[in-house]
Automatic annotation (TrEMBL), chain A:
NDH-1 shuttles electrons from NADH, via FMN and iron-sulfur (Fe-S) centers, to quinones in the respiratory chain. The immediate electron acceptor for the enzyme in this species is believed to be a menaquinone. Couples the redox reaction to proton translocation (for every two electrons transferred, four hydrogen ions are translocated across the cytoplasmic membrane), and thus conserves the redox energy in a proton gradient. InterPro entries: NADH_UbQ_OxRdtase_chain4L/K (IPR001133), NUOK/Mnh_C1-like (IPR039428). This is NADH-quinone oxidoreductase subunit K. Belongs to the complex I subunit 4L family. It comes from Blastococcus haudaquaticus. GO terms for molecular function: NADH dehydrogenase (quinone) (non-electrogenic) activity; quinone binding. GO terms for biological process: ATP synthesis coupled electron transport.
From TrEMBL, chain B:
It is found in: Cell membrane; Endomembrane system; Membrane. It holds the Pfam family Proton_antipo_M. This is NADH-quinone oxidoreductase subunit N. GO terms for cellular component: endomembrane system; plasma membrane. Belongs to the complex I subunit 2 family. It comes from Blastococcus haudaquaticus. Its EC number is 7.1.1.-. GO terms for molecular function: NADH dehydrogenase (quinone) (non-electrogenic) activity; NADH dehydrogenase (ubiquinone) activity; quinone binding. NDH-1 shuttles electrons from NADH, via FMN and iron-sulfur (Fe-S) centers, to quinones in the respiratory chain. The immediate electron acceptor for the enzyme in this species is believed to be a menaquinone. Couples the redox reaction to proton translocation (for every two electrons transferred, four hydrogen ions are translocated across the cytoplasmic membrane), and thus conserves the redox energy in a proton gradient. It is a multi-pass membrane protein. NDH-1 is composed of 14 different subunits. Subunits NuoA, H, J, K, L, M, N constitute the membrane sector of the complex. It catalyses: a quinone + NADH + 5 H(+)(in) = a quinol + NAD(+) + 4 H(+)(out). The gene is nuoN. The lineage of its organism: Bacteria, Bacillati, Actinomycetota, Actinomycetes, Geodermatophilales. Keywords: Cell membrane, Membrane, NAD, Quinone, Translocase, Transmembrane, Transmembrane helix, Transport.
From TrEMBL, chain C:
It is found in: Cell membrane; Membrane. It is an enzyme of class 7 (translocase). It comes from Blastococcus haudaquaticus. One of its GO terms (cellular component) is NADH dehydrogenase complex. It is a multi-pass membrane protein. This is NADH-quinone oxidoreductase subunit A. It comes from the Bacteria. Pfam families: Oxidored_q4. One of its GO terms (molecular function) is NADH dehydrogenase (quinone) (non-electrogenic) activity. The gene is nuoA. Belongs to the complex I subunit 3 family. Keywords: Cell membrane, Membrane, NAD, Quinone, Translocase, Transmembrane, Transmembrane helix, Transport. Its main location: membrane.
Length: 99, 518, 120
């Protein structure tokens, strides 16, 4: 069952992305890791579409791509606005809000 | 030839109303002259949300449960009840957005979000009386997303709705006029964590699709009945629930909540606290009950555990807060735990009273918390809202009315009898006990007692402490609200009292509505 | 079987012939006028410059254009399946696509009116 390899690859990519979100410090890189997670989901969806013989998975991958693009635009706009004030995109520098 | 899907336009009318208003809002933003744009935007947004409210209510007249739009959308009692709740609370939040009498610069939102905070141009714009009008279409899109979220009968639609409601929220939480860095920081945190959580939701969706071959909630239900539950399905369910619990700000997925609630402009915080909570719990109820109601053993321990964690974290950490917005954020985390008590009360066969109780609790909590945040916008100092606890000391002597209204909301949040909070809490705890989850109800009672302490502390501070900064003559001022905030306060306060004293008819309505389709 | 591919081979040959013809013919038939632009590394796009005063970053306008491009470009993925299956989807598909494109155009009108498409 060769499809398993794709699923395992997607799971590994998802994990790399999740770990990246947790350990990286630059907001842009964190964001790229989130995108990696979304794309690993796309791989999973397409693989399952093949495995279950339904077309839904491929359609869903389209939706995920579009949503990811919208998320990129919103996210970059937010990160850019804070970067222009602070000259830094490190999530460690964002420390005004705590108790 | 592919058959065109059945599309019940009547059932879609509330959603079309809101999204139509949002699109018109975008066009107004593009073509209407800037000087007179604000009243037009407010009107468009209010017509959209109130129109959605009215159409939802019209749908309840001789309605029958149905699944429309090729199985993507469920029109049933819970969907309509929660859609009406979201539309109503959303309209009230929009009124808070439109308040122009409180801030000297006439708006709580930054004029131009693209100007770097603290730059000369930014200082120049701070006192300009121009107002930000893009928040209205954004908020309307968010309301539309929420209304779609609670009616989604398909995991993909649920995901798209989740993003439609989240993306505008990320943006508007970064648009505060004052303390802009705080606000932008809140937006970054909310965005990064929100995107992280939606990635989890999405991976859960993919796994469930792999396990069952479909993302329709009904199909998932029958697939899990037929083929038993395999690892893939359980794992997928866990990831889906994590994504939703994040949006509902349930501990341990709550870390963004205090920061975002504090940093976002207060009207936006009110909007998030009231409407997002309703939407997220609506989706949780539908997912757990319609798709996984038959595989109930898979999620019950998980929900049981996070309910306890959430109540304890919210109540205990709420005690240590010195900022009112942060305190209300922890209160919202504790309330998410109480709401999960109601979710547990759904019952194995789905015949428990948990669904009706949770929906009623969502309504009361939304109204109360919206009112509490509306009061927060009134008390101000030179740099915007005065949210530090010490600044609220002796408020009753300065403004008895504001203190009295705030006391009402705090008592309701604490769950004192004769307020809406009590009836809501009573309903969810009873539902949990009926399902045999009395240990959970016990923890919930203890957590309520602890949480009551920090609400009462604010009341004591307002009534029995010497006024803050009185001797130096620099205490916070209590602003005179304009028409919009007055309407919000009047409606929320009346509803909080009315739902506490005569909850019968609304509880009945929730009970009659409490049947899912699918 | 393989004969099905003959037109494709023909197309390749035609394309190659046209390319070779263009490249060889150009020096003989075209006028030769040298100027500085001809010697630049790229004929279009951003000039390669060494560290400018602003810290070696592209102007913010560039990001704006890129972001607008992403968000509008990706909508194509919804048009593609419809275009492939246009006939089977019938009138309903057409109506849905028109609604979809109208909403995209609303966003486009917003970007255009708010000056998102102006470079300076």
């Amino acid at each position: 069952m060769t499809l398993t390899y794709y699923l395992v690859l997607a799971a590994i990519l998802f994990t790399i992305g999740a770990v990246g979100v947790l350990v990286r410090r630059n907001a842009i890189v964190v964001f790229m890791c989130v995108e990696l997670m979304l794309n690993s989901v796309n791989l999973t969806l397409v693989t399952f579409a093949r495995a279950t013989g339904t077309i839904d998975g491929q359609i869903m991958a389209f939706f995920v791509m579009v949503v990811a693009a919208a998320e990129v635009v919103v996210g970059l706009a937010i990160i850019m606005s804070i970067y222009r004030t602070r000259r830094s995109a490190s999530v460690d520098d964002a420390n005004l809000l705590k108790y | 030839m592919i058959e065109a899907p059945d599309l019940s336009l009547a059932a879609l009318a509330p959603l079309l109303f809101v999204f139509g208003a949002a699109c018109i809002g975008v066009l107004v933003e593009a073509f209407w002259p800037r000087e007179s744009r604000h009243p037009v935007q407010v009107t468009v947004a209010l017509v959209g949300t109130l129109g959605a409210l009215v159409t939802t209510l019209l749908l309840t007249v001789d309605f029958e449960r149905e699944i429309t739009a090729a199985g993507a959308l469920a029109v049933d009692g819970p969907a309509l009840f929660l859609q009406a709740t979201i539309a109503g609370l959303g309209a009230l939040s929009l009124l808070l957005f439109a308040e122009r009498a409180l801030d000297p610069a006439r708006s709580a939102f930054v004029v131009s979000a693209a100007v770097p905070a603290g730059s000369p141009r930014d200082r120049e714009l701070l006192t300009v009386q121009r107002v930000q009008t893009e928040v209205y279409p954004l908020a309307t899109f968010a309301i539309g997303g929420m209304m779609l979220f609670v009616a989604a009968n398909d995991l993909l639609i649920m995901f798209v709705a989740l993003e439609v409601l989240s993306l505008p929220l990320y943006l508007i939480s970064g648009l505060a006029r004052r303390r802009r860095l705080l606000s932008q920081e809140a937006a970054v945190k909310y965005f990064l964590l929100g995107a992280f959580a939606s990635a989890f939701f999405l991976y859960g969706l993919a796994l469930v699709y792999g396990a069952t071959g479909s993302v329709r909630l009904g199909d998932i239900r029958s697939a899990s009945l037929a083929g038993g539950t395999d690892v893939l399905l359980v794992l997928g369910l866990a990831l889906l629930v994590v994504g939703l619990l994040f949006k509902a700000s349930v501990a341990p997925f709550h870390t963004w909540t205090p920061d975002v609630y504090q940093g976002a402009p207060t009207p936006v915080t009110a909007f998030m606290a009231a409407c997002t909570k309703v939407a997220a719990f609506g989706a949780i109820l539908r997912l757990l009950y319609v798709a996984f109601g038959t595989a109930e053993w898979t999620w019950r321990p998980l929900v049981y555990a996070v309910a306890i964690v959430s109540m304890v974290v919210g109540a205990v950490l709420g005690l240590t807060q010195t900022d009112l917005k942060r305190m209300l954020a922890y209160s919202s985390i504790a309330h998410a735990g109480f709401l999960l008590t109601g979710v547990i009360g759904l019952g194995a066969a789905g015949d428990g009273s948990g669904l009706a109780a949770t929906m009623f609790y969502l309504l009361t909590y939304g109204l109360t918390t919206l009112g509490a945040f509306a009061v927060l916008t009134l008390v101000r100092d030179g740099d915007g809202e005065a949210t530090h606890l010490s600044q609220w000391a002796g408020l009753a002597s300065r403004s008895p009315l504001v203190a009295a209204v705030m006391t009402l909301f705090l008592l309701a949040l604490a769950g004192i009898p004769l307020t809406a909070g009590f009836t809501g809490k009573f309903a969810v705890f009873r539902a949990a006990i009926e399902e045999g989850a009395w240990p959970l109800a016990l923890v919930a009672l203890l957590a309520s007692a602890v949480a009551a302490f920090f609400y009462l502390r604010v009341i004591v501070l307002m009534y029995f402490s010497p006024p803050a900064g009185a001797e130096r003559g620099q205490g916070p001022t209590v602003g005179v609200p304009g028409m919009p905030t007055t309407i919000v306060l009047a409606i929320t306060a009346t509803a909080t009292l009315a739902l506490g004293i005569v909850p019968g008819s609304v509880l009945d309505l929730a009970e009659r509505a409490a049947i899912f389709v699918g | 079987m393989l004969s099905n591919y003959v037109p494709i081979v023909g197309l390749f040959a035609l394309a190659a012939a046209f390319a070779i013809f263009s490249v060889t013919a150009a020096p003989y038939v075209g006028p030769r006028r040298y100027n500085r632009a001809k010697l630049a590394a790229y004929e279009c796009g951003i000039e390669p410059v060494d560290q400018p005063l602003t810290g070696g970053r592209f102007p913010i306008k560039y990001y704006l254009t890129a972001m607008l491009f992403i968000v509008f470009d990706i909508e194509i993925v919804f048009l593609y399946p419809w275009a492939v299956h246009n006939e089977a989807l019938g009138v309903f598909g057409l109506v849905e696509m028109v609604v979809f494109i109208v909403t995209v155009f609303i966003a486009y009108a917003y970007v255009w009116r708010r000056g998102g498409l102006e470079w300076d």
